[in-house]
Amino acid sequence: MTAQLPALQVAIPLICAPLCVVGRSRRFAWWLFLLAALASLAISVLLALRVSREGAFSYQMGGWTAPAGIEWVVAGYNVPILLVVSAIAVAVAVYGYRAAGLELDDWHTTLLYTFLCLTLTGLLGLTITGDIFNAFVFLEISSLSTYALVAMGRRRRALLSSFRYLVIGTVGATFFVIGIGLAYAVTGTLNMADLAARVGAAEGNRALYAAVVFMVVGLGVKVALVPLHAWLPGAYAEAPNVVSMFLAATSTKVAIYILTRVMFTVFGTALVFTALPTGQVLLVLASAAMILGSAVACFQGDLKYLLAWSSVAQIGYIMAGISLATAAGVSAGYLHIINHAITKAAMFAAAGLLLARLGSVQLGALAGLGRRMPWTFGAIVVAGVGLIGLPPTAGFVSKWALVTALVEQRQWLVIAAMLVSSLLAMVYVGRLVEVAWFRDPAPVTETASPPKGMVAVTWVLVLLTIWFGIDASLPASLADSAAQALLGGGG
Amino acid sequence: MHTVLTVASGVLLTLGSIFLLTGAVGLLRFPDFYTRIHAGGIAETVGAGFILLGLLVRPDDWSPSVAVRLLVILAFLVLTSPTATHVLAQAARRDGVPVWEEGDGPQ
Amino acid sequence: MIATHYVYWVLFAIMMIGLYVVISHGNLLKKLIGLSIFQVGVFLFYISLGKVRGGSAPIISPTVQTYSHPLPQVLILTAIVVGVATLAVGLGLAVRIFETYGTVEEDEVITRSATDPADGVPEDSLNGGGGDAAQGDEA
Amino acid sequence: MSTEFTLVAIALLAMLTLTAMIISRLRGLYGAAMVAALFSLLTASLFVLMDAVDVAFTEAAVGVGVSTVLVLTVLALTHSREAVTPRNRRLPAVAVVVAAGGALVYASQDLPAFGSADSPIQTHPITDVYLVESQEDIGIPNVVTEVLASYRGLDTLGELIVVFTAGLTVLSLLGTLAPPEDCKPPGRFHLTDYRVIRIVSGLLMPFILLFALYVLFHGDYGPGGGFQAGVIFASGFVLYGLVFGLDRAQQVVPPRVLWLLVSLGPLVYAGVGVTTMLLGGTFLDYDMLNQGHPESGQHLGILVVETAIGLTVAAVMMTIFFGFASRGVTRK
Q: What is the pTM (predicted TM-score) of this model?
């Protein structure tokens, strides 16, 4: 039965989605989503063990051998992503049990879990597939369900955010499809491994160069790399909080993964980084993202917008590591994917606690509440330290790895950008501290304390960031094997 | 026989094209909504009908299955196109679209 | 070059007309129509890649020798369906935006969103809902 | 390329470009929607010209049919006149278009000539797998159906999930379908009052539904398949709803049933996958369905899968249409 695990990884959440609709009950849908998340986590752990034991392996869909049929590949480079996505899904499921009902009516809660199942299906499928057009299909599944989730936000601005995301996202996906088409025209195949083998023969082909550009731009939209980040702040901040927590931790990370997969294992470093100036361009954009994201975050009056802009900056860190195209750089990027996913999930979870208690996360409404809600603000501060990248949090570990990789390549300007960005992060986290502890409390109507389950999930995530900050052996080994798999030319 | 059919087919196709063309001209040149849908309706039924008939009698690669399909298309065309024109005219009359009369000048 | 590549160039032009409409027009519905044009250009490009001179549709029959390639057609069948699904979702959003903002012009939506003090307030509390917390506690 | 082919292609491409430009200029959106339908029709003709009959069928059903009806319905619910585009929006648009277009033209220098038989696509080994070996492995004349439902069956499952998601999203945005009694059209005007349209659509209904079934089950031998069949089936009901009123259409297919049908398709499709896994194959390996005769297993699998697609597509299209249309009725 273990041979079937790759298919089950995606099939279980996929089947749970229509079942949620048939069940027509909020409770039932929640159970199904929890089941899907737990099953995915269990399966991804089993897959990770198998990869560490016997290396990469593939799964032939429909029994057709690779280029004719669709192939799924499990290897060092996607195992960490599978683990992160399904672990966050479990956290979101437990957290959402009480949190979702705070923002949505019964019927929309049922749909929320259905869409979460679909997003999970899309993200996992996108991660595991070894066929480039199949990747587009899963990308669209996750995108479409994400638009629906964002539009469920309580404020009417959520609708506009969702619409913008839809238009920008679809243009990005279409660019990706154009890139696939150009590569297909030159190689005649859609299978990633087969593509990689045939790309070498078509050296200097201008259509292939354009294919790289279109794919990087198209996926850049999904990654929300500056200047293609316009959809992100609105989408993250206006979505219901459970959704923000899930998306901020997973969706851009999966997009980054598929971008690295395309750059390193499909087109190869020789084409992407030597023949084309992709590395330099991406480094410049990543530096711009770090500074712009953190700077804009300092001026936000709404905690969720602040967190969303900080995500823009953090994506810059990850992209900086990856665009070095060295083992150390890619490994640092992966490490930051894992650590930032946990940190940002913890941050949004804490924001959700505030939303549950105050009904708003405007900074003005949080004034002086630090003493009254020590647990919530404690979580925010610890996770905030993680965003700045100070010890003993996980953020420090990955930033340290990133700086080491940058020094190795003598990218002093990028390091300078990182420093500026970290200082700015200190400003916006400091602002939160100042608002919470050093301002006169606003007269707030006291409501019941947030549900215990939500607090527990928040603190589990916070403690996890501290643990990975002290003992980084698990994420570091995952990241190292990912970098090895990507750069070792394993298709 | 073959030549006769080919010529007949050519004549029918030409006739159909002429009707389509006049329909298009009429659509542009007629003064008001009602006369325009008249032109459009003619093009749709008569023009397309002649073209289908022309294809039907074409002797090259003639086969019963294609002929039956053409006839079915013709039947549906005769059924739906006048209905559409009718509904358009009805809707225009209900909304009070004015009828052009002699001396109104072009719209 | 012209004789062998003209089809691609025209299709690229169509894609770019669509893309131009998406970016430059502020009307949400027009944006969606532009998006469809952009996508249709890409669909035609794929199909043109699979076409073979003198070929016919890939339905195997003993009388035909050359077939155009079936794979691009399959991909585009999928993509068309994805496209119409996106269109339907976009239209649904446009209807809701019109109902809450009273316009489907992006610029007007943004100005109304910025000047309207009610915008910071959750929509359902405006409607006199507010029973959410109670629901949460039941669970 | 033969001269006729080139002439027809150039004529169609010219008209296509022209219509695209007209759409971009038109500020009356009803007009733009109708020209967009024409654009789709031209596209479908080009697909036929380039031997993609299945795609042409789908584009005709989707672009000319579904999209147009949806856009028109939404225009009735919103504004149909576009404001003048501010000049400051044009510059970034031009910049993006010039960059992207430039990249494409640059790329086209190394693209294989249009229609060449020795391009990498045509010479890749999978061409033979699809066009020759498939006839022994599966034995269905329409290769597009084979590749769609079997070789790349997973893509098609994904596509079905996308359709499912779209249906749910529209429902989530526009609220649950209104009960039939709330969907009575406002009194004074009934399309049913027109005897001509009532009788003609009454005459057409059975043929439309019959045609949908034909398209579904004939997909193995000619253009067609689950998706097109679903769209045609739904269009029959849309016609019925338009002419006889939404309330009566919803009495024929109650919202509850629609809900079930919407989720039935993905369940059946994925269920086939799980079944083949339980029988010892991989996901969606239809060979397992009949182990003695893998060919007939493939036939069975493809048939079930196509039916599942047809069901869900029809149900989703009806849901979306009823969602938009009942919004209009209940809002008034």
A: 0.93
